[in-house]
Amino acid sequence: MNLDAFLQHVKDIERDAVVEIPNCRTVDALRALEARHVKAPLAEGLKQLKTLPAEARAEAGKALNEAKQRLTQRFDAAIDDLKQRLIADERAVAATYDPTIPGPVVPRGALHPVTAVQWEVERVMTGLGFTVVGGPEMETDFHNFEALNIPATHPARDTMDTFWLTNGWLLRTHTSPCQVRAMLTYGAPLRVIAPGRCFRYETIDASHENTFFQVEGLLIDHGISIAHLIAVMRLLLRELFQRDVKVRLRPGFFPFVEPGFELDMSCEICAGTGCPTCKQSGWVEILPCGMVHPNVLRYGNIDPHEFTGFAFGLGLTRLAMMKYGIADIRILNSGDLRGIVPQNRLTGPQIGGCSVRKNPA
Ligand code: FA5
Question: Which of 39, 90, 219, 240 has the most crowded CB, counting CB atoms within 10 A?
Fold first, then answer.
């Protein structure tokens, strides 16, 4: 390279570097431009100085140094200028921000009707000293049938169309196996409720699902009688509906209670006049119950000569239908996102007593 070519090269570096300065919107972009178009080519020019004839090097070096000084000043000024502009922009935004303008409306979540009514049942029952327990949805024949006084040959098994699993277990057909687990784990005296999902291989209609919820209730103590059972059932329904609801009690057969009752409530959908939900009867089966059979107490390692008890199996999904006027049970598993907004979250299951959820073995 000769001197003229070198001087032209230095001018090109200077021109290329400044031409892009106005396009830079951030300090980082300016620094990157400086590194790419100034520092790197000038360092390269310094190396090329050595290739010039000795008499040309002084002038060439001077031109390179002066270009470097001018470019450094130019970039420093551009960075200062950009910083000032950014600060001014920030101040302008702050000056126009009005904290009194209402924020965007965030949609409120709501509870599934079955959850809402489950919380209500838990609130009332824990207020009476019951503990909330759970149990597995996949059950053994022993817990779901055998220990509930339903041996393999018992015809009552046919009333609960069962999803059997290939390993000999089953999807629980009711929450009653939680009774067995609670008795074996805690012994007597005992006061528990067990809300949970149940499964039956059933034809679906307006009031029957193959997957639905129940709440089991079990109270075992000295001298428990039908009077206690009826008092608790009455109180539970009055608290849930905040009024006296029309009910009827009739004999019902369940191998695990003796005597057993069916407690039906007047259909809230048609006010008892008859509709598809109540199969035109005006009544909905909601709360079967009875006095715990001595055989079941024995299976639970509890002496039936010392203790008596009552049990109930509240149809939670049907209760939600009655409480919230839902005429068809299929809506509840349909993904319909309308829900129940709790009046006051503090009236959830924490209030009213022991709400510890323990899972019996
Ligand atoms: C039972 O499941 C007994 N384990 C209840 C029980 C417990 C009786 C303790 C005595 C002592 P039943 O099969 O009737 O009983 O079901 C109880 C309630 O669950 C019914 O009254 C009904 O409200 C609800 N239920 C039953 N089958 C379905 C279904 N397919 N879909 C929706 N709800 C159902």
Answer: 219
